[in-house]
Amino acid sequence: MANILELQNTATQVRRDIVRMTNAVNSGHPGGSLGCTEFMTALFFNVMEHNPAHFTMDGKGSDMFFMSNGHITPVLYSIMARCGYFPVKELNTFRVFGTRLQGHPSTEHGLPGIRMASGSLGQGLSVAIGAAIAKKMDNDNKIVYTLHGDGELEEGQIWEAAMYAGAKGVDNLIATVDYNRQQIDGTTDEVLSLGDLKKKWEAFDWQVVEVENGNDMQQMLDAFTTAKSLTGKGKPVVILMKTEMGYGVDFMQGTNKYHGVAPSNDELERSLAQLKETLGDY
User: At residue 50, does pLDDT exceed 90?
Assistant: First the structure.
């Protein structure tokens, strides 16, 4: 289990990976990836019980993770490589046609760590609920985790799944919402206001954990500790995590401009100047 300094150093290196990967192919989604880096680092390096060297699709005996907002593969692939699911040098193949590291997660090439194709938003919670129920049937006491964008909550399937999980007491499930209030066409308030998310999830009979700053590593660790303590008590758990899109790179931060736009060569240099190399570039 990594200490907080190690986690922070990993997060900084992951951010370097994100901007380099997206710049190299002039495509991808750096904004949300940068914003979710603390969440992903804490989850994979400190919270989840998983063994990258012995990945199985059924996930028996391991915690499982499903990334429903599949467009933020830059952070997912970097995290997976850095914790040992595949060689770090394979990040060079990001978004290259025919490789394992496609723009959205794909199961076609059997990439370790990927259990569902995602990116068609709204589907991940349903899949995660199925996995959580399967664990209960197998008397497997491990936890299923999911990540969702706040704009993704505009998809009706999310709320059908939320209603089911609450009604059926799927209490080995921890979902997280990246609550950055940004989506590809503008702010969530401009596109479709989300209202009071805490009250909405509670109305669907979920336990809610709020994180005021999801880009603070200690706050994320504390939120996971709280969320895990609430599992097994008859209700699913959701973490509402306030982040800033583009966090860590000053000109990308707090705007949807880089939701799906890669940094130019000049912007890459500006980004890397703000992000110290800590684990070694690929």
Answer: yes
What distances in angstroms separate CA 199 from CA 16, 146, 151, 194, 195, one per listed residue? 37, 20, 17, 11, 9
**String of b and e for 241-259 (b: at least 16 CB within 10 Å)?**
bbbbbbbbbeebbbebebb
Q: How far apart are CA 85 and CA 45, in angstroms?
A: 12
Pairing of strands 182-183, 186-187: antiparallel
CA distance 108 to 105: 9
- pLDDT in the model for residue 281: 96
DSSP track, 63-81: -EEEESSTT-HHHHHHHHH
Q: How many CB atoms lie within 10 A of CB 184?
A: 15
* Cα angle: 266, vertex 83, 80; to 5 degrees: 60
Alpha carbon separation from 49 to 17, 41, 152 (Å, rounded): 24, 13, 27
At 206, list the tokens.
């979920």
pLDDT digits (tens, 9 = 90+) for 77-88: 999 999 999 999
